[in-house]
Design brief:
The chain is of the alpha/beta class and about 280 residues long. It is about 30% helix and about 20% strand. The protein contains 8 helices and 9 strands. It is globular and about 50 Å long. It starts with a helix and ends in a 9-residue tail after the last helix.
Length: about 280
Amino acid sequence: MSWRQIVADLGAVLFPSECLGCGVWDQVVCDECLARLFGHPSSWDLELGAAGDEVLSLFEVAPYENALRRLILAGKHDDTRELRPYFQAAGVNLVHGVAAAGWWKSAMGLGEVFVVPAPSTKPKHPSKVAQAFSRGIMHGLVQSGLAQSSAVLEVLRFRAGVTTQAGLSGAKRANNRHGQMYLTPELTPTQASLPPRRDGLLDGGATHPTNPGVFLDGGALRGVKVVLVDDVTATGSTLREMSRVLAQEGAEVLAGFVVASAKFAQSALQSSPENDTVN
């Protein structure tokens, strides 16, 4: 037995772990909290315009409250625990649940679909939850048959000076996002294609290796199918702005996926502490 394992075993005795969701001892994430993370997904429509005549289908794991809220906050802010595998698995499970429920029948066999995660107000410290969840959505799209291939495409950035949504009202959240996002010309997808493909890196201006009809001209996304991903949403302001920017660049925005939303969890909206960066 190595000294590292001895130290780890000793630490488990002296400092026993507790579930980050509910506090049960000796489990990082207990079975009950896992059931919340891998439970039955829900779906609702996000209105994209003031007229309400254009909507984006959103799929979520569960409401942003109680144990799931604590797990998400731990995943984003607790560097002592590795929770990314849980959120990646939650992304895979969510897509399979959506496919099994038949909520997105028109999406079957879409071909290539890119997963676009929400940008971070701290680019050097992006949300570990959103990153892992995006990879899960990517793998789930391929495994479920909704897409033939997929990749994570981190192409959106916030303009300098944009702050988090913590503590803001619905109107202020919208103002804090509208016009504050742009498309970066550097396209660096993480491939999940089956079988393996040749395009490990796409630079602005390059012709897509497996689809010559898609030309990434300085960041434009003409003809590219995308789904949006965020860790938590409240009013949908971030997702609306993501959809607006991508659509302006010619992308076809198919749907959105979130770990949790505060739409049906009013307690999260009534009390929004500094680290509750719901969007």
